[in-house]
Design a protein that fits this description.
Shape: rod-shaped
Structural class: alpha+beta
Strand content: 15-25%
Largest sheet: 4 strands, mixed
Number of helices: 6
Helix content: 40-55%
Number of strands: 8
Order of helices and strands: HHHHHEEEHEEEEE
Radius of gyration: 70 Å
Length: 273
């Protein structure tokens, strides 16, 4: 039998195998060993060429062993079902239903909150848009009103030539009042006389109490005097017609009117230019 070994460990193994294969020694040999005789066994290493792929050589030489080992690793998994159903625990079913209800409630609450937030945003946007529309409408109305007022002012100042001037007099030899209130309808105007004007009125002069553009129609004025004995005098009523595009002068002469309670009606002098 020819055996090939590599390395020092292989040499030791080979020596042990050779010793075992030699079998028992003859009796004479044992006795010879006892008297000092020895037998020499020499193991030489045979030089061989290294294969190109030693692993493939090993696998090829041991393929039967490897297949046998792989066959031992194979397992057959068999699943058997008898087709019978098992009852589920009611608690597990109840917990599953509760978990599904909780998830649905969360989804519902989330959808409601999202819808509420979206509705609030839409309402805010709608309110802002409505406010902007109202502001735009107010701006347009103010602009239109401004244009109308400008036109009326231009027409009134440029075309209006109907005016009225009211003067009072007839206080010669008597104490002149301190002020006069000229009223027409719901509008009234109070004119205070200066000391110089009162002195001029007492000396027979006149004082202007009204000058403005008016409508071409009939105007009725009520004059009430204040100060001194004129405080108890009844108001004087005067009516005047103002023609269109004319300057009308109305002079109210109080010469026939007493400062007491039994005075006569005032005289009105009207002229135009």
């Amino acid at each position: 039998m020819k055996m090939l070994f590599r390395g020092s460990a292989s040499v030791a193994v080979a020596v042990a195998i050779a010793a075992a294969g030699a079998g028992p020694l003859p009796a004479g040999a044992g006795e010879a060993g006892a008297v000092g005789e020895s037998q020499r066994v020499e193991v030489k290493r045979q030089k061989i060429d290294e294969p190109d792929q030693p692993t493939l050589v090993f696998l090829k030489e041991n393929r039967v062993f490897l297949r046998a080992e792989l066959d031992r690793l194979r397992q057959l998994v068999k699943v058997t079902r008898d087709g019978s159903a098992e009852l589920l625990d009611e608690r597990l079913l109840r917990l599953r239903e509760m978990a599904a209800a909780v998830a649905a409630a969360r989804d519902t609450v989330g959808d409601a909150e999202a819808a509420s937030a979206a509705r609030d945003r839409l309402e805010s946007v709608a309110e802002i848009a409505n406010l902007e529309a109202q502001l735009d409408l107010m701006d347009s109305l103010l602009a239109a009103q401004k244009q109308r007022l400008a036109w009326l002012e231009a027409d009134y100042l440029g075309q209006q030539r109907t005016a009225l001037v009211v003067v009072v007099g007839g206080f010669a030899g008597r104490e002149a009042p301190e002020s006069v209130v000229l009223a027409e309808g719901d509008e009234s105007r109070r004119v205070d006389f200066t000391p110089e004007q009162r002195t001029a009125l007492a000396q027979g002069g006149v004082a202007q109490v009204h000058h403005a553009f008016v409508e071409p129609r009939t105007h009725e004025f009520r004059l009430a005097f204040e100060g001194g004995d004129w405080q108890e005098a009844p108001p004087a009523l005067v009516s005047v017609e103002t023609p269109r595009d004319r300057l009308t002068f109305l002079e109210i002469d109080l010469g026939g009117t007493d400062s007491g309670r039994n005075g006569g009606a005032p005289a009105a002098v009207v002229w135009q230019r």
